[in-house]
């Protein structure tokens, strides 16, 4: 009940915050429309009484009352729709924005890894779409409460025993709540196959992946898997719907019996001459309305419960993402790096798994250095980079920035001093200028800054190939959006990473995989020169992950990762002379190219 009231309150408060005038109008119209229904029953009873009594003048008056209340019942709800339609659009948008904010508002990204949170996100994305129904239910509910009160008064005047009718409405209400809980549990339980099926659907319909899917001929396989996942999800939901229907039906039977009893009570009074025909008509219509009110209340309660559930999930996920507030004051990153970054006994295990991905990592990344991380697939290179960016906290050990623990540093401020380019970069469908400028928000639209960043990324020529230069909208979101090649997208993403001119840490995690080795080599050479100049001022460290040894060999320090441990460190000359894993990998690649 508390969840329900909190959800209802949050909804009405949201609607009021978004547009108080429309909220008030919708409440007034909905309430008046709902109250008009019992008034219609009263007017019908009155009209019947006047007709039976043979008073035509009063009967006509009562007829007008019947007509007016009938029109109000039909028309007011319709006008209320117009008022809350816009409100529900705004409220849905507001809900989506909160989900986006929570999804991206945390320091780390663990909440995207935990399976139980992933299920909550899936349900949240779906439930957000139901906002319209939730708000409509709430507004209807306000009117319904008044209508129920008025109906109860009219029934009590006829026979106090008839007040048991609304009481008999309680079992269907409770049954409705139980049924919704059954459905809610099923929705959470089937979130995993639903998420997997949606993922397959996006994959199978993505324009970007269409080529690979065709060549590998996996269409039927994907369809079969999609089918199996949906069947699993639907089976679970169907079973829950069946149970819910039985539970609801049992509740409704209780009310149906009470309804029959109530009508018989007044009919008996009428036969005994204690009541007139008008009273019988009134009770028959009112009792039917009580039935309808109960059905509406059950439906509204379900909608409200679903919305309340969505709010509860959002609140829970917000709390789990934000975590408890840290008591100790956080320190700011240094203005410039003097010593560098140290990793002391660092180990890391991904949330929800129990195999450590990194162990016993002790490293010193000197200020101003260019550092390459190499190793075989799955060795832990990207994980190391993510720890440096503060996406995750080490499970053991410490990362020290000029001696200060990263754990105690204000993550937002640390991020503001980092620039990063990843293999999985974002294809923002904005103008080319903004696609790059987003790398440094204060200079989002600055043409000189964007061009300089593109030059550092070896991508100065990309805008020249676009119909409207940097002003060209990119991607399929626009009718006239230009579509870029994978390499062009990657170059713009690299430009974005280069927007911050003097970061303390620049991480490049295979951001050049779509470029040819020579282009990658030239780019790193150019960037390393720039980095050296900037490093003189800020002591900034460049860390890059690459499988190409022609690039790697340029680094001041090469870190070789193998099986979750650092197996070798040194520069190219020292490592080749050592004849270890690096020398082996280097020789293998050199042979492949020769
Ligand atoms: N989000 C995650 N959750 C659980 N395990 C993960 C996650 N990301 C990576 N891993 C595991 O951690 C190990 C190291 O992955 P990582 O991405 O750091 O390797 P990598 O050296 O960068 O590999 P590659 O060269 O293929 O990019 C792998 O075994 C991988 O399965």
Automatic annotation (TrEMBL):
Keyword annotations from UniProtKB, A to Z: ATP-binding, Membrane, Nucleotide-binding, Transmembrane, Transmembrane helix
Record localization: Cell membrane
Keyword ATP-binding: yes
A UniProt-annotated Pfam family: ABC_tran
GO CC, one annotated term: plasma membrane
Topology class, membrane: Multi-pass membrane protein
Residue span, ABC transmembrane type-1 domain: 24-306
Domain ABC transporter: 341-588
Main location group: membrane
UniProt xrefs under PROSITE patterns: ABC_TM1F (PS50929), ABC_TRANSPORTER_1 (PS00211), ABC_TRANSPORTER_2 (PS50893)
Superkingdom of this protein's organism: Bacteria
Record keyword Transmembrane helix present: yes
MF (Gene Ontology): ABC-type transporter activity; ATP binding; ATP hydrolysis activity; ATPase-coupled lipid transmembrane transporter activity
Regions that span the bilayer: 25-47, 59-80, 137-157, 245-267
PANTHER family the record matches: ATP-BINDING CASSETTE SUB-FAMILY B, ATP-BINDING CASSETTE SUB-FAMILY B MEMBER 6
Name listed for the protein in its UniProt record: ATP-binding cassette subfamily B protein
Organism of this sequence: Saccharothrix texasensis
């Amino acid at each position: 009940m508390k969840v329900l009231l909190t959800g209802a309150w949050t909804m009405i408060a949201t609607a009021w915050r978004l547009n108080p005038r429309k909220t008030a109008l919708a409440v007034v119209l909905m309430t008046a429309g709902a109250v008009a229904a019992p008034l219609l029953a009263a007017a019908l009873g009155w009209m019947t009484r006047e007709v039976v009594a043979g008073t035509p003048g009063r009967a006509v008056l009562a007829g007008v009352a019947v007509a007016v209340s009938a029109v109000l019942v039909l028309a007011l709800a319709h006008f209320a729709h117009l008022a809350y339609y816009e409100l529900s659009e705004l409220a849905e948008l507001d809900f989506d924005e909160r989900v986006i904010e929570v999804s991206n508002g945390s320091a780390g990204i663990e909440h995207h890894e935990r399976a139980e949170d992933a299920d909550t996100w899936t349900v949240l994305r779906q439930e957000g779409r139901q906002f319209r129904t939730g708000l409509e239910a709430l507004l209807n509910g306000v009117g319904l409460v008044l209508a129920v009160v008025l109906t109860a008064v009219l029934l009590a005047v006829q026979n106090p025993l008839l007040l048991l009718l609304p009481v008999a409405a309680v079992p269907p209400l409770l049954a409705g709540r139980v049924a919704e809980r059954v459905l809610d549990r099923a929705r959470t339980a089937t979130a995993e196959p639903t998420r997997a099926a949606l993922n397959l659907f996006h994959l199978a319909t993505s324009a970007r992946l269409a080529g690979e899917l065709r060549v590998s001929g996996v269409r039927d396989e994907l369809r079969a898997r999609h089918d199996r996942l949906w069947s699993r999800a639907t089976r679970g939901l169907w079973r829950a719907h069946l149970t819910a229907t039985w539970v609801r039906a049992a509740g409704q039977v209780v009310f149906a019996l009470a309804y029959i009893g109530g009508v018989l009570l007044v009919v008996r009074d009428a036969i005994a001459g204690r009541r007139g025909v008008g009273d019988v008509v009134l009770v028959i219509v009112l009792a039917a309305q009580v039935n309808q009110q109960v059905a509406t209340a059950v439906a509204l309660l379900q909608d409200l419960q679903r919305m309340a559930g969505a709010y509860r999930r959002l609140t829970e996920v917000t709390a789990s993402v934000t975590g408890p507030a840290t008591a100790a004051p956080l320190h700011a990153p240094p203005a410039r790096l003097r010593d560098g970054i140290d990793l002391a006994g660092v180990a890391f295990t991904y949330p929800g798994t129990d195999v450590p991905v990194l162990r016993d990592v002790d490293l010193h990344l000197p200020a101003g250095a260019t550092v390459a991380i190499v190793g075989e697939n799955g060795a832990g290179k990207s994980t190391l980079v993510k720890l440096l960016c503060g996406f995750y906290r080490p499970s053991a050990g410490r990362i020290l920035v000029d001696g200060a623990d990263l754990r105690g540093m204000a993550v937002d401020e640390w991020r503001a001093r980092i620039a990063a380019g990843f293999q999985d970069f974002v294809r923002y469908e904005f103008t080319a200028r903004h696609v790059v400028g987003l790398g440094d928000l204060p200079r989002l639209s600055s043409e000189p800054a964007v061009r300089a960043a593109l030059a550092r990324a070896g991508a100065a020529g990309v805008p020249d190939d676009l119909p409207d230069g940097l002003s060209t909208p990119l991607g399929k979101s626009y009718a006239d959006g230009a579509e870029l090649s994978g390499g062009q997208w990657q170059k713009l993403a690299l430009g974005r990473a280069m927007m911050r001119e003097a970061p303390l840490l620049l991480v490049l995690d295979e951001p050049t995989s779509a470029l040819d080795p020579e282009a990658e080599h030239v780019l790193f050479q150019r960037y390393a020169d720039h980095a050296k100049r900037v490093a003189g001022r800020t002591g900034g460290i460049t860390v890059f992950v690459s499988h190409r040894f022609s690039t790697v060999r340029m680094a001041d320090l090469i870190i070789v990762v193998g099986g979750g441990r650092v197996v070798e460190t040194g520069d190219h000359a020292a490592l080749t002379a050592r004849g270890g894993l690096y020398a082996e990998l280097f020789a293998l690649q050199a042979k492949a190219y020769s």
